[in-house]
Amino acid sequence: MIKKRFQKILDQTERGQAIVLVAFAIIGLVAMVGLVTDTGILLIEYGKLKRGVDAAAVSAAQQYRLKGNTLDKAALENSAYNFLQLNQSADITNITVHSCEDAGADTFIDANSNGVWDAGETLTKDWNGNGAFDGSQKPDLCNPDPVGNPNANRKLVEVIASKKVYFGFLAVIGIRETTVTANSVGEAATIDLVLVIDNSGSMAYETSADAAGNDPNVCNLDNTCQPMKVVKDTALDFLNTLYFPYDRVSVVTMTGHTDRNPVEVLPLTSNKAAIVTAINDIKVFEPRDCDGSLTEGSCLYHDPTTGVFLGEACEIYQITIGGVDPATADPSSCPSSNVGGALKLARISFTEDPVHTRLDAFWVVVSLIGGPANATDVTDPVNYPHGFCPPNTFGLVASQLPWCRDREPTVRHAADDPLVAYINPISGVVDPRSPISLYDADDYARDMADALAKTISGEGVTIYTIGLGDAIKNTTFSDDHYPDGTIIPPAEDLLMYIAECAGEDSANDCRTPVTTPKINHGQYFFAPNNIALGEIFDRIAKNIATKISQ
Fold it and tell me: 184 and 198: one domain?
């Protein structure tokens, strides 16, 4: 009897132990299911936060393209905050934005008050919160030497955000929540931009209502040459759409002050003060005064009696064409619109310094041209001492033909095309210079545009062209027609090609639309007068901003 009672008690005890074991097993099972389920929730919430932080970093970085030259860290922070608050839950507990911008004057000592970092000026922040503005405490994304090594400056913004993640199953074992943190670095493209500015004699033709007031000898002295002055002022305003010291600018002019060859006035630099000085110092081409000699090159002609300026002349050609042997008249040393040469210098500007060439930058050329191409570089001094200028373009008088380019802008020649016979229209016999090359200034400009557009940087160089003034639409020297019968203006056709077709290797120069362009092309703009320039430069700035944010 006693044995039976003891066995009954023992059986009941075993059943109680089983209940305890089952209870613990259920808790363990819940914990395991919770671990799997809540870990999944944790990963999902982290993924959402990371995507939000990635997008916030990109959004913040794009503020660089909106602020001009203002160092404004607050704009970067606000953009990141607003994006995360709109696209994430209210459980975000902390948002930190790191950049290399400082919001207060107490942390940015701008000694010369020009709004940019210059040598000797202080740009630091109290990154470690110790009250000391220690430059060595900048985040790793900052360039430690923005002035001494400006080429390493990058438009980087780091966004760090945290949020709480609440658990369901794990709360059973007391784990109710945790905090996840994600960070991301966004970057806006830095810009390397070359300004190509036409400063040929036509840039003084609007200074006065009469020719006498358009003497570059005079208007260059007080910077009153028009439209040159407006061109320079507009270019200076355009600088405010860039962000120094991250972006860089080079300046190329169509001619020197007294030399007709294109000049790189300033290599790529992030020093805004140097860029402003370079633009302000540009002068209209000012060749020698005419003196009645057979000296090569153009000259400024003044009335022998009154001294009144009458215009730029090709004295050597005019004397020879009216002399005893007019068949030898050669004006090739006079024209100065070397569009191809200027574009060649633009290409060199991007690559001339191999150590500091920025392949990851957005390469842009903005070229302002006042007329068609009529000169080239001298690449073969023996056969073409003044550049490529076919004798069949010389004409009988100065007004008959466009020097150094033919009347068919859509007909493309190559420098190595076979030479052709040429009969001089004056002598009626085969010219002693025959056979001649038909490769001309317009062809050279297109070739240099192709080389520029295909310079290696991402999807090539983006080129914008601006045609200024009546000469851009002039059709006097054109025998070509568009399909609708409209006569083709040589200058405009060239500028459209440079901006919208260069580098595509199209057999018909893109007259048949290119379906899969290889180059990230810019646009061509026509400015009938200098008043339109400001609006055009604004449109170019917005177009550039759109391209670098895509």
Answer: no
Look at residues 188, 207, 238 and tell me which one is the last residue of a structural domain.
Answer: 188
Q: Which tens digit of pLDDT belongs to each residue from 5-59?
A: 556 555 555 555 666 666 666 666 666 666 677 778 888 888 888 888 888 887 7
* SS3 per-residue string spanning 333-393: CCCCCCHHHHHHHHHHHHHCCCCCCCCCCEEEEEEEECCCCCCCCCCCCCCCECECCCHHH
Residues 217 and 181 in one domain: no
Of 149, 171, 188, the domain-final residue: 188
One-letter-per-residue 3-state SS of 467-519: EECHHHCCCCCCCCECCCCCECCHHHHHHHHHHHCCCCCCCCCCCCCCCCCCC
- Cα 298 from Cα 286, distance rounded (Å): 9
Average pLDDT value for residue range 232-246 = 88
Strand-pairing partners, residue 253, are 197, 263
Q: Cα-flanking dihedrals φ and ψ of residue 201, to 5°? A: -55, -25
The C-alpha atoms of residue 149 and residue 131 are separated, in whole angstroms, by: 27
288 and 204 fall within a common domain:
yes
Most confident of the following: 181-190, 348-357, 419-428, 484-493: 484-493
Range of the domain at 532: 191-548
User: Is the distance from CB of 364 to CB of 544 less than 8 angstroms?
Assistant: yes
Residues 183 and 195 in one domain: no
pTM of this prediction exceeds 0.85: no
CB-CB contact of 310 with 240 (8 Å) = no
Q: Give the β-pairing of 299-302 and 309-313.
A: antiparallel
How do 122-123 and 108-109 pair as beta strands?
A: antiparallel
Residues 149 and 263 in one domain: no
Which of 354, 180, 186 minimizes the C-alpha distance to 267?
Answer: 354
Segments in 126-261 forming alpha helices (H):
216-219, 228-239
First to last CA, the chain: 92
H-helix or E-strand spanning residue 441: helix 441-453
Cα 62–Cα 66–Cα 68 angle in degrees, nearest 5: 125
pLDDT tens digits for 82-96? Answer: 888 777 656 677 787
Q: What is the DSSP track for 8-35?
A: HHHHHHHHHHHHHHHHHHHHHHHHHHHH
